[in-house]
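Fig. S4 source data, part A: sequence.
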Amino acid sequence: MSNPLATLFALAALAAPAAPARAADTYAVFQTSRGPIGVKLLAGKAPNAVKNFVELAMGKKAWTDPATGQKQNKKPMYDGTLFHRVIPGFMIQGGDPLSRGAELGQSGLPGGRPFGTGDPGYRFEDELEKPPATPFATPCQLAMANSGPNTNGSQFFITEVVTPHLNPRACANAPSGVCGYVHFGEGVCGCEKVAEIARAGNGQTRLDKVVITNKPPTCK
């Protein structure tokens, strides 16, 4: 004779909804002229920054060319840009659309704006942890470059070393009461290239392409 209680439990188990599938991790591989750097993107921490970066990298988001004022659609923004600002023992910075297609070593448009002053034609708000969070406690961290609170666009940097002075801090001039840099990725391979790029000098390394993938990169 079957056990009614066991039957009830079995039916309840069948009726229970399945647990939602875990979202796959997303990675960005910076294909530079000196070799690849692989980064895991932190969508759970900074979803807007990750979405913006991925869509710009894949040509899924419209942006405005700061050199011409023309709207760009379905054109990967990061392809062919330079690491225009590098500081050995600190970080490498890239992502300025003004530098797309520039010659290695070029520091700005001919007779025009210097690299580092360009943006994609829009800005978005910060996504910062509260102090005393320490997102820059390890090297090879990816974050948005900015010129103050809520001025994120397309420019980013990757740290070479531990940089505690970049950690979020309380400040009065930010609407949120916190100032800092939106941390949206952490290096998984190729991090030795950060030091190499930094020591090569400003504008001496090209970012050929950013590849977005769900497969953990090996940088081989």
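Fig. S4 source data, part B ends here. The chain has three helices and 13 strands.
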